[in-house]
Amino acid sequence: MRETTAAAIADAAVAGPAHRRDDPMQAFLRGAYEVGRKEVTQHLRTKRLLIIGILFVISLVFVTIVLPLLIENSTGERFYDEEAAEAPANQVFGIYLGAGGIGFLGGVFFIQLLAITLTADAVTSEWSHRTIFLLLSKPVTRSAFVLGKFLGSFVTVAVTFVSLFILDYLALLAVFPGAPSGADLGAFASALGILVLGAAAYSGMALFLSTVTKSSVVAFILALALWVLVFPLLTLPGQLIFMADFNDAGPEEVDPTDMKYEFWSYLDPGSSMRVAPKNMLSEDAFGFGPSVSRASGAVLALLVHAGVYVTAAFFVVQRRNFE
Fold first, then answer.
1. What is the rounded CA–CA span in Å between residue 96 and residue 112?
2. Candidate from 66-70, 109-113, 133-137 with smallest mean pLDDT
């Protein structure tokens, strides 16, 4: 089945009007498109997308709709601060993205998990099934192959969570009182933009790891290790420097947004993604110490992460002998 699919991609990549066949850019774009289209189709058929998607929906509905209504009906207290925002939907959705300390139920967690799970075997699966030889034996260049793999996984992740979030946001507007202002809608849109870039960064990271090993399991473990262990550890120097200055100078003299602390947070794409919920809330509810605080810095950091990892994947695939 995979060989048939690979053959169809390769044939489609070289098909087209005769006057376009000798155009390298047209051939490159056509090859990347066909590889990406096949990748999206395969993701839509996999159980992992279905399973993670179901868990995603459950967490989304529970945290943003069920839990607020349960709290309000049982205690009489609002899940949100009525004085903090005219449109509670933004505040409730922002709490879900940050998950208020229960990260495994939050939207950022599921976006990262989905990107890693769908992309970590992007190259290794083709290699282990020997379909990569058929793909690369046709005029599907290695660069087009890598770009198509990245775009196929990234687009699947982005379309999945953006669709879910928009539907949930519309439901929140119906469930909770108040109408969003232009600023509220802008904050929601900017949060989605940051999360899309975050999905690109994690998809790029997982894609790169799938090029440096032949085992899908190893690539997935390496991606999890980077996500859970390495990235958080990279932010540790900023935390230590901040705590040392905090203890010496006191809270009044230390600004956690100072670049000498905050720079280290940019090394973790997850830290940059957490600017999205901050953007939607009227106050910082995400702990003590340095973190990425500006949307512009988060956007730049995520673009750099995605660019570095995808470029590294291009470099490895161009030079690797798939035998």
1. 15
2. 133-137
- Does position 21 have pLDDT exceeding 60, yes or no? no
> CA dihedral in degrees (48, 50, 52, 56; nearest 10)?
170
Q: What residues have CB less than 8 Å from 246, skipping those under 6 apart?
A: 254
Give pLDDT, residue 258: 84
CB 32 within 8 A of CB 148: yes
The Cα 123–Cα 284 span in angstroms is 40
Nearest to 98 by CA among 59, 127, 136: 59
Rounded distance, CA 314 to CA 67, Å?
Answer: 45
In whole angstroms, give the CA distance from residue 169 to residue 266: 28
Tokens found for residue 176: 């909770």
DSSP string, 111-173: HHHHHHHHHTTTTHHHHHTTHHHHHHHTT--HHHHHHHHHHHHHHHHHHHHHHHHHHHHHHHH
- Candidates 120, 112, 110, 115; CA nearest to 54 is 110
**79-88, 146-155, 294-303: least confident range:** 79-88
Collect all residues with Cβ–Cβ distance below 8 Å to 114 and sequence separation of at least 6: 49, 52, 53, 56, 157, 160, 161, 199
Residue with tokens 């470099």: 315
100 has pLDDT over 50: no
Can you read off the two tokens belonging to residue 174? 């119906």
Asked if residue 143 lies in contact with residue 27, where contact means CB atoms within 8 angstroms, the answer is no
Query: Is the pTM of the predicted complex or chain greater than 0.90?
Result: no
Output the pLDDT for position 101: 44
Burial (CB < 10 A; 0-12, 13-18, 19+), residue 24, is: exposed
Which of 190, 221, 225 is CA-nearest to residue 299?
Answer: 190
Token pair of 284, please? 């910082």
Please state the φ and ψ torsions of residue 18, each to the nearest 5 degrees.
-60, -35
Please state, in angstroms and as integers, the Cα–Cα distance from residue 157 to each residue in 5, 139, 147, 166, 204, following that order: 22, 28, 15, 14, 12
